[in-house]
Each structure stands twice: as structure tokens, then as C-alpha cells.
Design goal:
The chain is about 45% helix and about 25% strand. The chain is of the alpha+beta class.
Length: about 260
């Protein structure tokens, strides 16, 4: 069956037998040691999740992006040029790679999404153009005194974080064929939604001949590293996230995870 043309339902039960409605998840469940570790962290006893193609839910994805901007919560203040910043974060996946992504729906509400890029070269070229556009917009506001103090600090820290990410990626393995983003609504992060989206990501990557992918996760200092390594794969870089550290008031790291398929 063509995943992207259909709707599927997951019934995830915290028992020995797991009933699923997708061949791709059955395939993913072959990683029995990873599944057992993942489910051991889940506090969901039973959850029904539906995966659907990303393109049909663009507005819901954009809404969830803003609602979970700051580690599961909204940003908390009006950010100048927030529309273009959201485009920088989402537009590639919603236009050039919508057929690769998926949303997770529970009780008729989008509670998570997965974004997948299997063409890093094209993505980097697109990203450079949009980043230049955003930089010009922010600079124009700055020199005409139309950039708020909070927005000015946000973009200054994001610029420093971008330099850190750029330097870090130059040291990363070059044989990784895809990068992914997964975003889940606050209150839905206990396991079942992530399990469904992770299965989708793995399946899509295999379909496109990708043998490994990387993703970035923000985590408070000292938390989640061991669990993430058990569930997702190898943590290949840990860098400070200056922007989120400033916004939440305590140290936050950006973890780069590599998952081999």
C-alpha cells in the first residue's frame, strides 16, 4: 500500500502484544531491544493514533510549531518577523518534501508531526537564500529602530547558535543521507506519538535508500541523553543552545542524534 495516500490507525497497548495497523511499524518493531526500552519509558497505557500525510494539514503544523516553539510551550512574546522565521523552519518541508512527512492525530487533533529531508544539498541551498532574506529583514528593522529589545536579543543569540551549529556540522559524518525534525504537543510526549512518528521516519528513509539520519533535540542540561541513546541512536554532538537557555532560564543543550537503519 502507498502510505502517503491512506490513513492508518495505531492501537498502542502497554502489554506484551502490540496491535498495529501499519506494515511499516511491524517492520520497525523488529528492533525489539529498542522497542522494549522505548515502551519502558511510556506512561501511556493505551492510545489510538492516526498518521496522515503532511500536506493536508499545513495550517495545523504551523499552529503546532508556534504552540511548541519553546520546548513544548509558546515563545511567550511577540517576535518581530516571526512569519519569516517560521518559513525558515518549515517551508522547505511543506513544499519540497511534503510527501515525506506525516502528522500524528489523536482524537481528531494534530498532536505531532515529522519532517523529513532526503536531499541535504538542495535544502542547504534553499536555507541559505531564506536565511539571507531573514537577515536583511531583521537588519532593516534594527537600523530603523523597529526591532524590539526582546527580538533583538533573540536574533543575536540565534545567530551565535547558528555559528555553533555550522561549526559542529562540519565535524559530523558526511555519510548521513537525511535529516529529520519531530515535534510533539506538550502533554503527548510520553511515548506513543513519538513511536508512531519514528516508525514513519525510518520507513520513509529506507524507501529512499537512506541508511542513516540525524536529528536535533533540545534538552535541559543533564537530562535525556542516556534515554535518547537507547531509543534513537548515537548522540554525536552536544552543543549549548544559547537562545533556549536564555528564554527558559536554565542551561539547555542541543543534542545531535544519528540513527542507523
Amino acid at each position: 500500500a502507498n502510505f502517503h495516500a491512506k490513513t492508518y490507525v495505531f492501537n498502542v497497548n502497554f502489554v506484551q502484544a502490540i496491535s498495529v495497523g501499519l506494515p511499516l511499524v511491524n517492520e520497525w518493531l523488529k528492533y525489539s531491544h529498542q522497542v522494549s526500552e522505548f515502551l519502558s519509558m511510556s506512561i501511556i497505557l493505551e492510545s489510538q493514533i492516526r498518521l496522515e500525510p503532511l500536506g493536508q494539514y499545513e495550517s495545523e503544523v504551523r499552529h503546532l510549531f508556534h504552540e511548541t516553539f519553546l520546548m513544548g510551550r509558546p515563545l511567550g512574546f511577540p517576535l518581530d518577523e516571526v512569519g519569516l522565521y517560521a518559513e525558515l523552519s518549515l517551508a522547505w518541508y511543506l513544499t519540497n518534501a511534503a510527501h515525506l512527512g506525516a502528522v500524528a492525530i489523536r482524537d481528531n487533533e494534530v498532536v505531532g508531526y515529522a519532517l523529513v529531508c532526503t536531499d541535504p544539498v538542495a535544502y542547504d541551498e534553499w536555507l541559505a537564500k531564506v536565511a539571507k532574506k531573514l537577515t536583511r529583514r531583521v537588519f532593516a528593522r534594527l537600523v530603523t529602530f523597529r526591532l524590539s529589545a526582546r527580538s533583538r536579543k533573540f536574533y543575536r543569540l540565534r545567530f551565535l547558535d547558528s555559528l555553533t551549529v555550522w561549526k559542529s556540522r562540519k565535524r559530523l559524518p558526511i555519510d548521513v543521507g537525511a535529516h529529520v525534525h519531530m515535534n510533539i504537543k506538550e502533554g503527548e510526549r510520553s511515548g506513543a506519538v513519538a513511536l508512531a512518528l519514528l516508525g514513519h521516519i525510518d520507513h520513509v528513509c529506507r524507501e529512499h535508500g537512506v541508511t542513516s539520519w540525524i536529528g536535533e533535540i533540545n534538552a535541559s542540561l543533564g537530562s535525556r541523553e542516556r534515554a535518547l541513546a537507547r531509543v534513537l541512536g548515537e548522540i554525536i554532538a552536544i552543543e549549548p543552545n544559547r537562545t533556549f537557555t536564555d528564554l527558559v532560564g536554565h542551561p539547555v543543550n542541543r543534542l545531535t542524534v544519528r540513527r542507523d537503519l
